Amino acid sequence: MAADPDASSPILTFNRAEKSYGDDGDVIAVGGVDCTIAARSFVALVGASGSGKSTLLKMVNTLVEPSAGRVLFGGEDVTALNQSHLRRRVGYVFQGIGLFPHITVRENIAIGPRLAGERLQPSRIEELLTLVELEPEMAGRMPDELSGGQRQRVGVARALAGDPEMLLMDEPFGALDPITRDALGEKVRELHNRLGLTTVMVTHDMAEALLLADRVLVMDGGFLVADETPASLLAGGGGEIAQGLVAVPRQQAERLAAMEAAGANHGNTAP
Ligand code: ADP
Ligand code: MG
Q1: Which terminus of the chain, N or C, has less C-beta within 10 A?
Q2: What is the pLDDT of residues 76-121, one digit of tens each?
Q3: What is the dotted CATH code of the domain comprising 10-269?
Q4: Which of 54, 67, 201 should be mutated for ligand 1, with most atoms under 8 A from CB?
Q5: How does 40-53 read in b/e, with b if 16+ C-beta sit within 10 Å?
């Protein structure tokens, strides 16, 4: 890893990246994305279901190959990089894919390096568990002996096992209760800062994106339709689709504030 990369230097570039499916290529999942992501930035990728977020993320670690255009990581086309090196440099928390149920937490965390022919030392497993605020003793547990939040923490530890430069997360906290979700989001942001990571997090939750990210990309129908800072989105920027997403948490906050002002009686006038 470079000693101290310039915070503004691009680590990831989508160059008219495009992906279509179907015999005639008529299902456009990603319709030509041009975008540059600076090293050490925390980027949220937001959009409705089916807008192409997962497909765009999968192009980075070559799980999906572009139909046209290119994806550059550190200036090099990802398809030309040594794939096991690439998978080490890019940690991935997959959408909906949890831990392997029949192996221990320790083995789950070590699986990436193991597939690359490397054994993680017990001290490293302990270090990774500590990073995500789990007890080292949990290494010997099976996934079904953990809470949902603890499992997601193991998922993050697994993504960090190869000491990556970049962390990609696809709706990592989707299935969690709001309090656990909030705590894990804060934890990931703290790890991002502490480890000097570049993070791209897919979420459909605009509030989460605004609270955690430095930059918010909005996708719609396979295209990037907004690229804004949280401050700019809150000030009304980014266009209609982005503002439609911002309106949801804003209206909730306004309704809560109004309820608080009215004494939280839900408009009920009974004593
Ligand atoms: P998101 O993550 O934003 O929900 P996806 O990237 O998963 O969206 O999907 C974008 C579009 O591409 C959707 O219309 C989806 O049905 C389609 N798609 C994704 N993967 C495939 C695939 N393997 N085969 C065919 N269509 C796909
Ligand atoms: Mg998805």
Answers
A1: C
A2: 999 999 998 898 899 999 877 789 999 999 999 999 888 888 899 9
A3: 3.40.50.300
A4: 54
A5: bbbbbbbbeeebbb
